[in-house]
Amino acid sequence: MAKRKSKSNASDSPGGGWEVIYTGFILIMLCFFIMLCSFSKVAPNKMHKFVKSFAESVDMFKGGFGFRSGKETSDVISEAVGLEEGLAPIIRQFVQIRDEFGLQKEVEYAISTEGLVLQVSDSALFDRGVAEISPKAFPFLNMIAHIISKSTHNVSVEGHTDNLPIHTEKSPSNWDLSTTRAVNVLRYLINEGKCSPKRLSAAGFGAFQPIFPNDTPEHRAKNRRVEFVFVPDE
């Protein structure tokens, strides 16, 4: 009787079942490392997406997964997009050109779902409310053309404006202004920069894709921009 009672108490004692949880955790980690080995020859950006998805699936913390700002950004981007796909070298060249021309406040870059986006303020390329490229922007555009011609990516030139209405003989609306600016930049890249027209396209979005609210002069200035979107050729 004493032995039976002892066994019954042991099975009913609290804390049982941790072996199952621990075994499940070990199996998850085993699957993770098997997937890492099977993806050892996959492009780094695809590996990054897999690790991100896996981390979000088993992570017990909230807050998401994103890129960090500051000095660490370049290293994270290099891992995310992959040197072999050409985006990391493009970023380095772009930052070097930006610094050489002293356009740190007018020129930025970002990673989007489409690819690498180089954002150039309209003040670096045009006079206010004018669609013709300013001659002062020619040296800068020549360097951008050099980057494009050396890459294998398709590039979309996209014009954007703020929400202040415009009505001139050459630009009846913000749609016209943004589109004409994008086309003028594209023509310059082809005619002067000798970029292949097969990999270039142009589009104008007016004021309908702002990156900041159009509530202050500073924010409206940020929204007036031309973007060079480098899209990987799948």
Description:
- The chain has 234 residues and is α+β, with helices and mostly antiparallel strands.
- It folds into two domains: 16-66; 73-231, 2-Layer Sandwich (60s Ribosomal Protein L30, Chain: A).
- It contains eight helices and five strands; from the N terminus they run αααααββαβαβαβ.
- It has helices at 2-12, 18-38, 44-58, 73-81, 87-100, 138-150, 174-191, 217-223; strands at residues 107-111, 116-121, 154-160, 200-204, 225-231.
- A five-stranded mixed β-sheet has the order 1-2-5-3-4.
- Strand 1 (107-111) and strand 2 (116-121) form a beta hairpin.
- The longest helix is centred in the first third of the chain and has 21 residues, at 18-38.
- The radius of gyration is 26 Å and the shape is elongated.
- Mean pLDDT is 80; it is low at 58-84.
List descriptors.
60s Ribosomal Protein L30, Chain: A; 5 strands; five-stranded mixed beta sheet; 13% strand; 46% helix; 234 residues; 2 domains
